[in-house]
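pinned: reference chain
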Amino acid sequence: MQKHPMTKEGADALQAELNKLKKEDRPRITQAIADAREHGDLKENAEYHAAREQQGLAEARISQIEAQLSNAQIIDVTKLNPGGKIVFGATVTVLNIDTDEELTYKIVGNEESDVKANKISVNSPIARALIGKEEGDEVIVQAPSGNIDYEIIEIQYI
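pinned: its structure tokens
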């Protein structure tokens, strides 16, 4: 089975969610099901059905997280020595040459990507264009709306 890259930060966040699901949510839902059962007829018991649905969603998420973590190759960028090059896990500040807009992205695994949090997948066009480059380099990103020229301003390994 092929391993998928994941940042240490992303793995830690998933592990924290998994711990919460197993240690807090699962017992709470189990108790809610037990409480609902005590109210008698289960066919018309909305609390019971809601708790069972919550249980199904929680168990599915637990399985999903466990699968993601078992297939993850966890990379701690702070322990790498990339020699000033952009690598998986790096945080990169770029300048859009056409608009003078500065953007900062962290290059992460597919499961961790979140554009709103400026975390982009290592497989995205911009990340593929940036990997292996250094500060001061210019890159052309082939975006769906056309080519975008960026200058690399700063690379951080945090």
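why pinned: Helices lie at 8-37, 46-70, 125-130. The mean pLDDT is 92.
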